[in-house]
Design brief:
CATH architecture: Beta Barrel
Largest sheet: 7 strands, mixed
Strand content: over 45%
CATH superfamily: Acid Proteases
Number of domains: 1
CATH topology: Cathepsin D, subunit A, domain 1
Structural class: mainly beta
Shape: globular
Number of helices: 2
Radius of gyration: 16 Å
Helix content: under 10%
Order of helices and strands: EEEHEEEEHEE
Number of strands: 9
Length: 127
């Protein structure tokens, strides 16, 4: 299976004119997005905390995180961004995809819009 890439813009919500655009790998195994640290520094984003992430090989590492506006396919969503190594490939995680109602079509490895963003509610309880 091939890799799916999409153009994404990461925007500083406090200063929307500060943005960084790149081709991101769509990673359905990643929860959050990952951006090289120098790109985040360049648009004025600073770490807001740290989170422990599990790597594909089972190791756990603690990484700096922040929040930003994530724009792709004509949509925008606020989300968690991981500060990656300077040479890291940018990753678009499933949280951003699901938040705007987009999923990966496994047959042709393309992104497709769902008819609506999924919103699951608890069934109504009868008295």
């Amino acid at each position: 299976m091939g890799a799916t890439h999409v153009t994404v813009t990461i925007r500083n919500p406090a200063e929307p004119s500060k943005a960084w655009e790149a081709l991101f790998l769509v990673d359905t195994g990643a929860t959050d997005c990952l951006v090289p640290r120098p790109a985040l520094d360049a648009i004025g984003l600073r770490p807001k905390g740290q989170r422990v992430y599990e790597l594909a090989d089972g190791r756990e590492i603690q990484l700096d995180i922040t929040t930003a506006d994530i724009e792709f396919m004509g949509e925008i969503v606020g989300g968690t961004i991981i500060f990656g190594e300077p040479d890291a490939e940018p990753l678009l995680g499933v949280t951003a995809l699901a938040s705007v109602g987009v999923e990966v079509d496994p047959t042709n490895q393309r992104l497709k819009r769902l008819p609506a963003v999924r919103l699951k509610t608890a069934p109504a309880q009868t008295p």
